[in-house]
Structure formats: structure tokens, C-alpha cells
Amino acid sequence: MNKIALALLLATATLLGACGHTDTTAPASPTVTYTYKDQTLALAAAPQRIIPLSGSLLSMLYAVDGTAVARPTTTGEIPPAAETLPQIGHVSTINAETLISLQPDLVIGLQSQNQKLASILEANHLPYTLIDYEGIDDNVPLLRFLGDVTGHSARADEVIQHYEEQIRAIEARARTLSPVRIAVLRATGKSVTAETPLAITASMTERLGMRNVVTAHLDSHAQAKTVPYSLETLANDNPDIIFVVTMGKADQIEARMAQEMTSNPAWHALKAVQDGRVFYLPSDLYLLNPGIHTPEAMQGLLERAYSL
């Protein structure tokens, strides 16, 4: 294959991955094609040197018996077989120079986190795809996609079956319990907001039949994952349980929570506070999509809410 044809082929692969649309133009040479939701990726051959850019992608890749040549830096759980791999930085601050030096034949990243890498990968002729991976409903399509990419479709089917069985069992258990009224706060060093059902933790509480008091303040067309939420509103809603999802440094979060919530006498009058039912959740399971660990995350919410 001449250099021009090769460049065109690689450009096709990268554009398909980045944009998430199917390209109807015939590739310059035989290709393999993979599909994730409405995104299509065409490559010259099945990839052998994959680099995932987030911890959740890494865990999902190894769950289907795939392998990587490098991994992101993460505070979350790392598959044992991936612990000693070269690190390329955190998902939002990937070290492009290190990534390029490893010469992957497929980089898998997130549209929400890695868009700034697209032009760099294209300039260095590295095939990539940035996937639209947000809610927990994306987990099964991702497992299926990674099974196809790694040539482990049968293993992916096994993992999906087990994953769905776990989710069904947890949801069935939740249906036997009386619904509780909850609020999910998102606390950072800069603000305290409330999660809507479009956010990860609030979406899981909804599937567990818990009643998110914040939804009463949303209009039917709201598309935000978090919304402003004052202590006054929280006091009026007075939920049975408060979940707090944290993002950032602990000391900064504690200071912000004190400024906006916990130092005010109204906070201590809340039912959830008086009953000892305010739960600070680990960010690795509740800030972003927990991926293959979603059943664990949902079970954790159920156990906290009902003291199981």
C-alpha cells in the first residue's frame, strides 16, 4: 500500500471514531468495522496495541479478556494484569507525548473528556475513537463493542449475562422495600449542587425506586445533570436520606460544604442529619460511570438506604 493510501485509511478510521458517524465511503483497502451504539469505527486490521484513556474503559476492556499496552492513572480499582503497565496520566490530563511514543493501533477515549486529543492523534496518524459513554445504560453496548474489538465476543456475552443478572437481582430486591425520599448532592471545592436523574448516582437511585426530591423542582425538558440547590430548598424538601457525591480535594470539599450547608443550624435540623443518614460516597463508584462495577455501586446505595 502506498503512503497516500495508508494516510487516507488512517484518517478515515480516526474521523469515524471521533465523530461517531458511519462513513459510507469505501475504505482504500479491506478493513474491519466495529460498531458502538450509533458510532462506527473502521480499521485496517484488528487492533493489537490498545490504549484506553479512562479507568472505566480499562476495567471494561479487561473484563472481556482484552489487554492494553498502557493505562490511565486512576484512584479507582485497576485490573491486576494492568497494574504494571506504563501510565499515561489522568483521563482529563493525558500525557500526549507518552501516549504517542507507545504507538498504539487503537486509542479508546471519551467524548466528554478527551476531545482535545483528537487533533494530536490525527496529526500522528494514530487510529482512535472517542465514544459517547455517559449513563449506565451504555455499559452493555460498550462491553459488546470491546468484545468485538478484541476478538472476544463470546466472553463479552458471558460478562453481559452475569452483569444483567446482578442488576436484575438488585432491582428486584429494591422493589420489595418501601421507597425512601432522597437527595443527591454533588460537592466540589467550588460549589454544592444537586444531581438530576441524568447524573450517574441519581440515575441509579431512580432505578432502585428511590424518590429524588430534586425532581419536583425540574421542568420536563431539563437536560442538566446537576442544578443549583440551596440549603433552604433542601430544608423544605427534608429528605429521609442525603447522598453526597464528591469531586476534588477533601479539604476543599469540606470547606465548601461547611460554607453552604453543614455550618448552618438548618442543616442540623434536617431529618437525614438527625437520623445519621447522610452518606459521603466514594467518587470512583459514584462520580463517573462505574462501568463493570455498576452492580456493586447499586448494591452499595441499597445497603446504605435500607441499612441492609
Brief description of this entry?
This protein is of the alpha/beta class.
Describe this entry's structure for a reader.
By secondary structure, the protein is an alpha/beta fold. 41% of the residues lie in helices and 16% in strands. The strands form 3 sheets. Strands 6, 7, 8, 9, 10 and 11 form a 6-stranded mixed β-sheet that branches. A hairpin with a 3-residue loop joins β6 and β7. α5 runs antiparallel to α6 and α6 packs parallel to α13. The longest helix has 23 residues. The termini are far apart. 39% of the residues are buried.
Break the fold down into its secondary structure elements and pairings.
Elements: H1 3-19, E1 32-36, E2 39-43, E3 50-52, H2 55-63, H3 96-101, E4 106-110, H4 118-123, E5 128-131, H5 139-150, H6 153-175, E6 181-188, E7 192-195, H7 200-207, E8 211-212, E9 226-228, H8 231-237, E10 241-247, H9 250-262, H10 265-268, H11 271-274, E11 278-281, H12 283-286, H13 294-306
Parallel strand pairs: 3-4, 4-5, 6-8, 6-10, 10-11
Antiparallel strand pairs: 1-2, 6-7, 7-9
List keywords for this structure.
3-stranded parallel sheet, Rossmann fold, 6-stranded mixed sheet, alpha/beta, globular
Number of contiguous helices? 13
CATH fold-level assignment of the largest domain: Rossmann fold
Order of helices and strands: HEEEHHEHEHHEEHEEHEHHHEHH
> Which CATH architecture of the largest domain is right?
3-Layer(aba) Sandwich
Structural class: alpha/beta
Shape: globular
Note the gap between the termini: 62 Å
Main sheet: strands, sense, barrel: 6 strands, mixed
Total beta-strand segments: 11
Number of domains: 2
Nearest-integer average pLDDT: 89
CATH hierarchy, class of the largest domain: Alpha Beta
The radius of gyration computed from the alpha-carbon positions, rounded to a whole number of angstroms, is: 22 Å
> Which range best describes the helical content: under 10%, 10-25%, 25-40%, 40-55%, 55-70% or over 70%?
40-55%
| Strand residues, percent | 15-25%
The CATH homologous superfamily of the largest domain is called Nitrogenase molybdenum iron protein domain
